[in-house]
Amino acid sequence: MSDSFLSEGASALDQADPLAPLRAEFLFPASEGEADVYFVGNSLGLQPRRTAEDLSRVLEQWQHSAVHGHFEGSPAWMDLPQLVSDAMSPLVGAGPDEVVVMNTLTVNLHLMMSTFYQPTQSRYKILIEEHAFPSDHQAVTSHLTLRGQTAEKALVTVRPEPGSFLISTERILESIEQHRDSLAMILLPGVQYYTGQVFDMSRITSKAREYEIPIGLDLAHAVGNIPLQLHSWEVDFACWCTYKYLNSGPGALGGCFIHSRHSANRDLPRLAGWWGHERETRFEMKPDFVPSPNAQGWQLSNPPILALAPILSSLHLFAQAGGIERLREKSLRLTSYLRSLLLHKLGDQVRVLTPESSEQAGCQLSLEIHGQKSGKDVFDRLSHHSVHADWREPSVIRAAPVPIYNSFGDIQRFVETLAQCMRTPA
Ligand SMILES: *Cc1c(COP(=O)(O)O)cnc(C)c1O
Fold first, then answer.
1. Which pLDDT value is given to residue 1?
2. Which pLDDT does position 402 carry in this prediction?
3. Are 194 and 142 in contact (CB under 8 A)?
4. To pair with 42 at 20 to 30 A between CA atoms, which of 66, 155, 240, 361?
5. In the predicted model, is pLDDT for residue 237 greater than 50?
6. What's the rounded mean pLDDT across residues 240-247?
7. Helix axes 408-423, 324-346, angle to 10 degrees
8. In the predicted model, what is the mean pLDDT of the chain?
């Protein structure tokens, strides 16, 4: 990054930022009347101002219309899930029929594996990354056990390069090649939660498709962060949560993508429930199961309206921003500003684990502290200065400037406070 970018200064960069007004649409934690620096949108996104109003409209609908709220009011509760899928699908590069918002991330992983993990005598292995998010690892191994496999025999884990936390695309492709005749499924993240590394989802999916190995993506750290093209990449399925970059509140519902070449196939095995039954005949109340010929065919229960409403509130703001590509443009600038300032002011004491190339990084930078104080000490001090980042064992501070509400000014304050926290005596 050029020095001129640095010397421009944060306030000039904020003034020139066409997306800066969106910041006012969010509620920030504050100390002594001033908004805190919040770089934890990768863990829990901030609350949009409009969420409370949208939620209270549902409560009023419940109060005044009671059961008729399913069909009356705007939107009628029957129509809300489709509105959410319509608004969500551009964020993942999918058609509205390929996206359903339901349950939570890990539950959806299980539902998807009940369909896409179909082990045979010769093909029974699942490939994941060695440092997968614990829940993903646990979900996968529990499916192996359910199908009479063992992790020792059937779990293939791709390791980072020696001495690094990163995994090159080549390493993943080689591992797929090596196990191509025995793999029954692949599950990888879009963006790695610890390092912030973006995987080459397109190339990896092509390789999996070459050998007809179903591939699923965990997009918890990718959705709302980087543009995705799930349909054209031909990914089989994907799952994500909406409480991180999608700002839909703690424990909010998860999203799920099933490619149209599968979602229209009513013969695919799955765990079933009445809300997955096709809409037209659902209320005939017959025991046989005719799945909806789209992603909705994996729903189990009638949708939680109070949980769906905040998702739509947040997705409105993504539309208002002009979509994920526009946000990504700002994000690239924000994160390279953070990287340059860190290098300039603390280059000898802070190591950035996240890859530098824009193809391999989203908004988050994972920082290792190599000063006199331990990383954990520095992190604790940051928190006392109303600067919110997060700590991930064993050794990183994750900092995620989020383009929809963070500013260049936030970055300047973050780096200044970090420098101060590394300096002050223990
Ligand atoms: C955040 C996250 C989860 C969380 O799963 P929940 O079921 O929503 O609690 C799972 N996997 C990854 C990779 C995550 O980053």
1. 47
2. 98
3. no
4. 155
5. yes
6. 98
7. 30
8. 95
Tens of pLDDT, residues 42-100: 999 999 999 999 999 999 999 999 999 999 998 999 999 999 999 999 999 999 999 99
Q: What percent of the chain has pLDDT over 90?
A: 94
Which residues neighbour 368 within 8 Å (Cβ) at sequence distance 6 or greater? 350, 351, 352, 353, 375, 395, 396, 397
Residue nearest to atom 8 of ligand 1 (CA): 105
* Contact 110 CB / ligand 1 (< 6 Å): no
Residues 181/154, Cβ–Cβ less than 8 Å: no
Q: Is 218 in the pocket of ligand 1 (CB under 6 A)?
A: yes
Q: Which amino acid is at 178?
A: Q
Residue 133 Cβ contacting ligand 1 at under 6 Å: yes
- Nearest atom in ligand 1 to the alpha carbon of residue 133 is 13
The H helix count followed by the E strand count for the chain is 15, 17
CA of 69 to the centre of ligand 1 (A): 32
Kindly report the protein residue whose alpha carbon is nearest to atom 2 of ligand 1. 220
| Greatest extent of the chain over all pairs of C-alpha atoms, in Å | 72
CA of 76 to the centre of ligand 1 (A): 30
Neighbours of 309 (CB within 10 A): 24
Distance from Cα 220 to the centre of ligand 1, integer Å: 6
* Sole residue written with tokens 């002011």: 345
Ligand 1 center–CA 239 separation, angstroms: 9
**What would the pLDDT profile of 146-191 be if each residue is shown by its tens digit?**
999 999 999 999 999 998 999 999 999 999 999 999 999 999 999 9
User: ω into residue 287 within 30 of 0, thus cis?
Assistant: no
β-bridge partners, 216:
187, 237
Tell how far the Cα of 332 is from the centroid of ligand 1, in angstroms. Answer: 24
pTM confidence score: 0.96
